[in-house]
Design brief:
Largest sheet: 4 strands, parallel
Strand content: 5-15%
Structural class: alpha/beta
CATH architecture of one domain: Orthogonal Bundle
CATH superfamily of one domain: Isoleucyl-tRNA Synthetase, Domain 1
Number of strands: 13
RNA sequence: GCGUCUGUAGCUCAGCUGGAUAGAGCAACGGACUUCUAAUCCGUAGGCCGCAGGUUCGAAUCCUGCCAGACGCGCCA
């Protein structure tokens, strides 16, 4: 059982019930895992189903529940313990709950929910990884924001994260691009059109190549030149890369996402031979149709391709080289790869190869897959020019937000800044609000929706809370003491119970590599708070009541900001 | 053909390490702004949880089969 510094009712219940049942050999850990939250508040706040205990205790579950009800003293954490059929229901005593949770949030501030379980160990997170010379489109959004959120979440839990942008800056596509540039491009056009011009050339290459397959050979020849260090080819490659990076950087600046390393694929060029040699030495390489492979029949997988017929490398080779390099450089306890679910087999294969090489840290490699983004049911395709640029989406979202502000809150100061925060927040939250694995069909309408379960909803709730605090001139330094018993309305208690869940939700989000757990939680928290907001006036004459409510509002504001922060979203004070 | 993932309200999704009466948002309809920001809140309506078996005291959740969709399966990444 993980002891932590946060109030943990499951632990309290496991402890007390465990003590009662000590002689029957029921483990406290097992009890902890059984405890659940009842579906209806009438059934209490926590419940212990006794079905499974009945096997060990050789007694009917409802009898067990009854006996436990009689043997357990609910005080001080519960006001009642009641057997309801086969369930033992626990009713939380409000005052200790309110006091403990709010006091802890006040004293920890933005650190509430944080832990030190990571112990400063390194976690490498490989995310975003757009391809050079291709536009940064909505398909890259998931990897970018999921990776960023996991980065923040693990840092929050005491790990030291290393964010790596494994740029797609090597490969045959550069040969294609140079071919197209030579035939249909010019320096002026590229200087002027930048990545959009590169994209035009790339698309043109593919349409022309359908008629004239010889172009493909030309492209391969140009890529070979890059690999052989031909100066003209290399300088074009560097130029294209520079242009792309500048464009990517603009998007990262808008998203306020940064990386600790921009080592892309080309970075590993000089590290691949050693890997191939090692695979040979360990007798893992087998020749097959002229290519060098690692056979994985035994593990029910197709073989992992290491070298092509012509001796050149493939992306599995590169990934293995990168993993070895990262292990040596960062001593990670986990390496996360945030890429599309389509690559699941690829990762399974080369993870296995690393294991077969004798590295036990292969088990620390984790693929974090996410679903496919499509456009009107059709795949995104750079080649066909069917994409939505991320920058366009973000800019549209910001413009729309500005229009809403001008309509609803025209006197707001720093409109542009707020519009940016909210517009970007809407897009980012949209990508983080559903389970990673779900495929999504991009729709402008949905991406630009600001009502209901959206980022702006959370930001709006936060801004409202800030507004109350501002009017009251409240800050926690002004007074941390408050009367917990005054927060006795159901609406207020619901909010406190929602706040209580935050640390637990952050932990699950990390364990499951699933930021959407935090997204959904924040929606729930905001919803309970908005209910409270409508029902209970905070600024009232009764000073004790007002003080208690202000503490609650401050706590909600803090958790909303912290939670949004973990998702990589900012929370404006006004909007 | 083989493999992986997905299938829950009209739409988008929670719930899936088995537990009590399957929950939200959007859209629809009806209500709440002289009161801390209505980007809000409250209410109504909406369900063979893809289908069929099985395991179990108990299945949306686990197992098997089938159906539908997405993705993957050696020289792209």
């Amino acid at each position: 059982m993980q002891k932590n510094s946060y109030l943990d009712y499951k632990e309290i219940i496991a402890e007390t019930v465990g003590t009662v049942l000590a002689e029957s050999g029921v483990e406290k850990e097992a009890l902890y895992a059984l405890i659940e939250y009842p579906p209806d508040e009438k059934l209490g706040d926590l419940a212990l189903p006794c079905f499974q205990l009945s096997k060990v205790l050789r007694k009917a579950p409802n009898l067990i529940a009854e006996e436990l009800e009689n043997k357990i003293d609910p005080a001080p954490y519960f006001e009642a313990v009641k057997a309801t059929g086969p369930y033992l229901n626990f009713y939380v005593a409000p005052v200790p709950l309110v006091k403990d949770v709010l006091a802890k949030i006040i004293t920890s501030g933005s650190k509430y929910g944080a832990r030190s379980v990571g112990g400063g160990q390194n976690i490498v997170i490989d995310f975003s990884a757009p391809n050079i010379a291709k536009p940064f489109h909505v398909g890259h959004l998931c990897s970018t924001v999921i990776g960023n959120a996991l980065y923040k979440i693990f840092e929050f839990l005491g790990y030291n994260c290393v964010g790596i942008n494994h740029l797609g800056d090597w490969g045959t596509q550069f040969g294609k691009l140079i071919t197209a540039y030579k035939k249909w491009g010019s320096a002026e056009a590229v200087e002027k059109g930048l990545i959009k011009e590169l994209m035009r050339l790339y698309v043109k290459f593919h349409t022309e190549a359908e008629q004239d397959p010889a172009l493909e050979d030309e492209a391969r020849a140009w890529f070979r030149k890059i690999e052989n260090g031909d100066e003209e080819a290399l300088s074009l490659w560097r130029w294209f890369k520079e242009i792309s990076l500048e464009e990517f950087q603009r998007v990262y600046d808008i998203l306020e996402i940064s990386f600790d390393s921009m080592a892309g694929e080309s970075f590993y060029n000089d590290k691949i031979d050693a890997v191939v040699n090692e695979l040979k030495e360990k007798e893992l390489l087998v020749e097959s149709d002229g290519a060098a492979i690692v056979n994985l029949d035994e593990y029910g997988m197709p073989p992992c391709l290491i070298l092509k017929k012509d001796g050149s490398t493939l992306y599995a080779t590169r990934d293995i080289a990168a993993a070895l390099y990262r292990k040596k450089t960062y001593q990670f306890v986990k390496a996360l790869y945030v890429t599309g679910a389509a690559q699941s087999l690829h990762f399974k294969q080369w993870f296995k190869v690393v294991e077969l090489m004798g590295y036990d840290w292969a088990k620390e490699l984790v693929h974090i897959p996410f679903g496919l983004v499509s456009l009107k049911g059709e795949k995104l395709s750079t080649r066909k020019g069917r994409v939505v640029l991320l920058e366009d989406l973000l800019k549209t979202a910001i413009e729309k937000t500005l229009a809403i502000i001008n309509e609803k809150n025209p006197s707001l100061l720093q409109k542009e800044e707020v519009a940016q925060t909210v517009g970007v927040g809407a897009v980012v939250f949209g990508a983080l609000s559903v389970n990673r694995i779900k495929d999504v069909t991009f729709s402008w309408e949905e991406a630009l929706s600001f009502e209901g379960e959206t980022g702006p909803y959370l930001q709006y709730t936060h801004a409202r809370a800030c507004s109350i605090l501002r009017k009251a001139g409240y800050s926690p330094d002004a007074g941390v003491t408050f009367a917990p018993e005054r927060l006795n309305e159901p609406a207020a208690l619901k909010v406190v119970k929602a706040l209580y869940l935050f640390p637990e939700k952050v932990l699950s989000a990390a364990n499951e590599f699933e930021p959407s757990i935090i997204s959904r939680y924040l929606i729930e928290l905001a919803h309970t708070f908005n209910g409270f907001y409508h029902e209970c006036q905070v600024l009232v004459d009764d000073q004790d009541l007002q003080q208690a409510r202000l503490v609650l509002v401050w706590a909600v504001k803090t958790i909303l900001a912290t939670g949004l922060g973990l998702l990589g979203i900012k929370a404006p004070e006004q909007m």
